[in-house]
């Protein structure tokens, strides 16, 4: 717990300083080892040089073959030992009898060193031997006479200094290096810790871990799909809703974008560098509304995030705003119309015009039956048929003739469209046509509707002779309206999205004070939904 709560600045300082000290310690050990080895080589080379000097002296060569020759050799050797600052010089004859030694009592005695054998075979070499006073570097040089025969051996010994002795010789340098290392190590550690702290927005590691957990929880709780990639196109965010919409079941965080999404539409969106909002794209058989936001840090692009939702949710909302509203209006108009007719019948009865009242009832019933039969014979979906009936009656109330073309027919829906989409298309177009007569005085106000389909295409045409549209180039932009404060600017935008989803086209022609015409073409396929087979289900749903 203490380590987890320890400030990151202190952790970095301790770690950096520890690394510096550890590096200094390892470097010191290696350096001291090299110095120690160099000292050993130096003593060995110096011993060989001294041994060669002694072995080549004529007095040494003459006396080493004589009995009690140490009386001549030892004084000479001691002077050379003193001048060359070596610890000892021992001269042996071929019988290993000492002819010189720092300890006088050992003169004339036999040497029993274990490393001397090779020296009596005319070899010069250096070896190490441990004794009571420490480790000695011993240099061996053979003594040769004028006939190049070996007559003895010179042994030059130098005691290796201890580790403390070597360290004490570098005392000043070691202290200076230690101080500089401590000062610069602490300063560097502090600067590094401060930089890291700034880069992490002055947050501690446990705080960053908490923020990451909170962020992940928020992403997973969102109703929209969220996908984010870094600059290397590695997936860093991929919430459960995104997996559900894209039908992905494996864990994908940390994987490459190409590995998971390959060259899909969503992958292409993530690779783009510009922002986009409320763009509708098709993913397989789904239509999703997508927002793309590039991620920048200090004016550098470091990734991209897309947020999207299934088009079904938007369709349901549009249905509530358009389809349900249309049916409520239809019921209201039907109730109003029936009240008017009841008042007319009641008035005729009060005037004792019973025959005229009965005739009025028969005429009204006949007209309604003919209109209902005409629409239901050509429109095989009760939602669309009910919409037409409600709009015809609304037109009657407003003094507008809503005319359904005699050749109109709708048996099935285009691919990827359903009755919700058609309710939204026709409902919005007819409402816009009604609005075209607001504050516009014209006799014979008329709205014409034509819906026709064959195996290849479904055609929808809605035209009116109203006041027309001043600027029809922007009418499909989200939020754009020609109705002032009464318009939402969403109806035609949604129609455009539906047409795009179906892969169709929409054309508008409008002239001021002459009228407006909307012409839609939606491609059909054999996989379209056959409405006849679902008529009973639709009927029960309407009832």
Description:
The protein has helices spanning 2-5, 8-55, 58-63, 70-84, 163-169, 171-199, 205-221, 240-246, 257-261, 265-271, 311-350, 354-378, 382-398, 419-435, 491-502, 535-542; strands at residues 88-93, 98-100, 125-131, 134-144, 150-159, 225-230, 235-238, 276-283, 286-297, 300-310, 401-404, 412-413, 446-453, 457-464, 505-511, 515-523, 529-530. It is of the alpha+beta class and 543 residues long. The longest helix has 48 residues, at 8-55. The model is unreliable at 526-543 (pLDDT under 50).
- Summed up, the helix count is 16
Strand content: 15-25%
| Helix and strand composition category | alpha+beta
Return residue spans where pLDDT drops below 50 for at least 5 consecutive residues: 526-543
**Can you summarize the main beta sheet?**
5 strands, antiparallel
C-alpha end-to-end distance: 67 Å
Mean pLDDT: 80
Short note summarizing the structure:
The protein is an alpha+beta fold.
Name the descriptors.
single chain; 22% strand; 5-stranded antiparallel β-sheet; 17 strands; 49% helix; disordered C terminus; alpha+beta; 543 residues
């Amino acid at each position: 717990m203490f380590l987890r709560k320890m400030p990151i600045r202190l952790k970095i300082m301790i770690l950096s300083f520890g690394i510096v000290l550890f590096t200094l310690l390892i470097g010191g050990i290696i350096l001291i080892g090299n110095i120690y080895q160099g000292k050993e080589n130096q003593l060995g080379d110096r011993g060989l040089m001294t041994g060669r000097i002694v072995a080549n002296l004529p007095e040494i060569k003459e006396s080493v073959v004589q009995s009690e020759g140490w009386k001549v050799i030892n004084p000479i050797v001691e002077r050379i030992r003193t001048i060359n600052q070596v610890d000892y010089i021992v001269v042996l004859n071929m019988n290993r009898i000492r002819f010189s030694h720092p300890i006088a009592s050992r003169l004339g005695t036999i040497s029993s060193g274990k490393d001397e054998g090779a020296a009596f075979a005319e070899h010069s070499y250096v070896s190490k031997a441990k004794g009571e006073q420490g480790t000695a570097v011993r240099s061996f040089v053979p003594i040769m006479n004028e006939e190049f025969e070996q007559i003895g051996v010179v042994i030059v010994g130098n005691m290796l200094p201890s580790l403390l002795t070597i360290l004490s010789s570098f005392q000043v340098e070691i202290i200076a290096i230690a101080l500089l290392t401590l000062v610069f190590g602490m300063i560097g550690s502090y600067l590094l810790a401060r930089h890291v702290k700034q880069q992490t927005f002055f947050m501690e590691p446990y705080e960053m871990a908490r923020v990451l957990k909170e962020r992940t929880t928020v992403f997973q709780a969102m109703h929209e799909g969220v996908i984010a990639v870094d600059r290397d196109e590695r997936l860093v965010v991929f919430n459960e809703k995104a997996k559900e919409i894209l039908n992905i079941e494996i864990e994908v965080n940390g994987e490459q974008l190409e590995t998971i999404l390959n060259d899909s539409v969503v992958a292409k969106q993530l690779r783009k560098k510009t922002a986009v909002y409320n763009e509708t794209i098709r993913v397989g058989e789904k239509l999703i509304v997508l927002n793309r936001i590039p991620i920048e840090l200090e004016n550098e692009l470091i990734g991209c995030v897309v947020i999207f939702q299934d088009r079904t949710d938007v369709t349901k909302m549009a249905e509530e705003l358009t389809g349900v509203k249309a049916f409520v209006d239809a019921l209201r108009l039907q109730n109003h119309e029936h009240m008017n007719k009841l008042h007319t019948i009641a008035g005729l009865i009060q005037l004792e015009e019973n025959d005229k009242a009965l005739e009025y009832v028969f005429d009204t019933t006949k007209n309604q039956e003919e209109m209902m039969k005409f629409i239901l014979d050509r429109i095989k979906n009760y939602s669309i048929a009910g919409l037409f009936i409600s709009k015809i009656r609304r037109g009657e109330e407003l003094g507008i003739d809503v005319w359904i073309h005699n050749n109109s027919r709708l048996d099935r829906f285009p691919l990827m469209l359903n009755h919700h989409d058609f309710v939204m298309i026709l409902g919005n177009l007819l409402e816009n046509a009604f609005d075209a007569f607001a504050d516009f005085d014209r006799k014979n106000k008329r709205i014409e509707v034509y819906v026709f389909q064959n195996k290849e295409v479904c055609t929808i045409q809605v035209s009116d002779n109203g006041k027309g549209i001043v600027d029809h180039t922007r009418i499909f932009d989200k939020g754009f309206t020609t109705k002032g404060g009464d318009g939402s600017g969403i109806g035609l935008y949604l129609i455009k999205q539906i047409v795009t989803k179906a892969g169709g086209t929409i054309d508008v022609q409008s002239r001021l004070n002459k009228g407006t015409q909307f012409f839609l073409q939606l491609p059909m396929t054999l996989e379209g939904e056959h409405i006849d087979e679902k008529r009973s289900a639709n009927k029960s749903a309407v009832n």
